[in-house]
Amino acid sequence: MTDINVELAVAVVSAVFSLGAGIFSARANRKAREFEHELERRRKAEDEVAAALRILRQYRDPLLDAAHTLQSRIYNIVRQSYLNIWLRCGDPEQERYARDYTVYALAEYLTWVEIVRRELRFLDVGDEDHNRQLMALLMNAQRTIQSSALRGPFLVFRGHQRAIAEVMMVPTGAPDGPRHECMGYAAFCRRLDEDEDFRVWFDRLRREVDELVERDRDDRLVRLQNDLVDLIDHLDPKALRIPAQYRARIPLPAGIPAQVTH
Fold first, then answer.
1. pLDDT in tens, 165-215
2. Beta carbons of 215 and 197 less than 8 angstroms apart
3. Exposed, middle or buried, 19 (CB in 10 Å: 0-12/13-18/19+)?
4. Any residues with CB less than 8 A from the CB of 155 and at least 6 apart, and which?
5. Mean of the per-residue pLDDT values for the chain?
């Protein structure tokens, strides 16, 4: 082989090796970038799940208390004739409390649900069955309240549910932790008395409380009470906050199936 041929062969081999090295390097760099992207995606997902879990822990107790307050009020209305006794007792203060605290209990529950929804709307709640079940239970109660197929008062469509929550929310001013909470009952009563724009969101519900005295069947209230007990069982499975004896279910009327969670 002549010197020229040797030099040519060496150049070709060198070029092939250089090309191969370049291709290998490009592939390695691409793989490295893909690996970094995947790590970043997983870190972001883990951060979102951690943030969602933190929010759920922060709001578990107020949501639990609100669910218990509402289901207890419904139980007393349906099973203990609460409104028949106190809504016409002749004492204006007690009659107002019977009417307005019933409405407040519903509004308070809707408010805490909306606060949780707003805090979680851009986060992944994770793949844990516990978290998915919580979302399903909240959806069950929402469907019960907005279902026109159920008889009874307190038919509140989804947009109206969120609007009620919006006017009930107050900022906490806390730089860390919950940014909103629900106004208390005293503030609620004061706003009813002084703010017509606020009161209009509750006028129909207050009238429907009065009408409850005359009704003999309220499927929506019974279904909602069962939905709320399901939620309480989920949030407090060991009955540490709400004792088991305060979770009695109202039997569902015939033809009204129990909710099914997914």
1. 999 999 987 766 668 899 999 999 999 999 999 999 999 999 999 998 877
2. no
3. exposed
4. 145, 146, 147, 148, 220
5. 84
Structure tokens that stand for 131 in this block: 């978290």
Rounded CA separation 112/67 (Å): 9
Structure tokens of 107? 């509004």
With 50 as the cut, is the pLDDT of residue 46 above it?
Answer: no
Taking the C-alpha atoms of residue 119 and residue 63, their distance in angstroms, rounded to an integer, is: 13
CA 118 to chain centre: 8
**CA angle, corner 147, sides to 70 and 108, nearest 5?**
25
| CA 89 centroid distance within chain | 37
The predicted-structure confidence for 137-155, as pLDDT tens digits, reads as follows: 999 999 999 999 998 899 9
Q: How many CB atoms lie within 10 A of CB 152?
A: 20
The whole-angstrom separation of Cα 227 and Cα 137 is 7
CA dihedral sign, ordered 82, 87, 93, 97: positive
The number of beta carbons lying within 10 Å of the beta carbon of residue 106 is 24
